[in-house]
Amino acid sequence: MNEEFLKIDMHVHTRGVSSCSRVSVEEAVDLKKADGYDGIVLTNHCQSWYYPETEHGAYVERVIDEFKRAKEYGDKKGLKVFLGLEVSINEPFYSDWLLYGVTEAFLRTTPCLYKLGQRELYKLCHDNGILLVQAHPYRGNTGYCDDMKPGYSDALDGLEINCTAGDFLKRDKVERSAKEMGKLIVCGTDYHFPDNRVKGGTLLPAWVETSVDIAKYLKETPKTKLFFDKEIKEYSK
User: Fold this and answer.
1) What is residue 151's predicted lDDT score, i.e. its pLDDT?
2) How far apart are CA 106 and CA 170, in angstroms?
């Protein structure tokens, strides 16, 4: 029997937390459902220009509240909503990281994540069963893969093929880098705007119910299966 897979957008922002987004949680759920998705990972921003370190606890509660609202609405509409996060760090240089396997307890008991360096963030994620995936590598000249410093390839779990127009042009470079490093690949749309109806994402088994399930699957599967509109492609680690 063939396993059933769900179409998941692994990179979605909503305006209740991410001020750069123009979609509410209700709009995100409705539009993604209309575009044929089965679920989304809410990866709202954790960045130094969003809040000072002293307000980290309050900001975490906003992230959790936004997720709960999205999940409650998604449950009503038949769209799965998972908790994730996008963390922007400045050491060893500016880069953005998607976290999969995030729980409310993790967010409430960890330090201000944007203050960490890449190795610190990776260890914290690794110790808590969370996958650390670089968002939109090769964007501009600041991405991790633009400046491969010795050893740092060991401080990440995977790379993202990002479906925004400019980033999707870097797909071949992302594929090559992931293959060379033996890392997994995921795909997301970096969704911020209601008119961004590009279709792409990651196919996940129907049994996933939480972000922890997503992390477990991505760790254990020998290959990931991505979709780009009607194209489906598998990537071995």
Assistant:
1) 44
2) 32
Of the candidates 206, 208, 188, the one whose C-alpha atom is nearest the C-alpha of residue 198 is 188
Q: What are phi and psi of 19, to 5 degrees?
A: -65, -15
From CA 84, how far away is CA 159, in angstroms rounded?
15
Torsions phi, psi for 235 (to 5 deg): -130, 120
- Domains (ranges, CATH) in the chain? 5-236 (3.20.20.140)
- Asked if 188 and 10 touch (Cβ cutoff 8 Å), the reply is yes
pLDDT at residue 92, as a whole number: 83
Counting Cα atoms < 13 Å in the Cβ hemisphere of 188 gives 28
Cis peptide leading into residue 92 (ω within 30°): yes
Q: Rounded mean pLDDT of 35-64?
A: 98
| Torsion of Cα atoms, 176 then 191 then 72 then 30, to 10° | -120
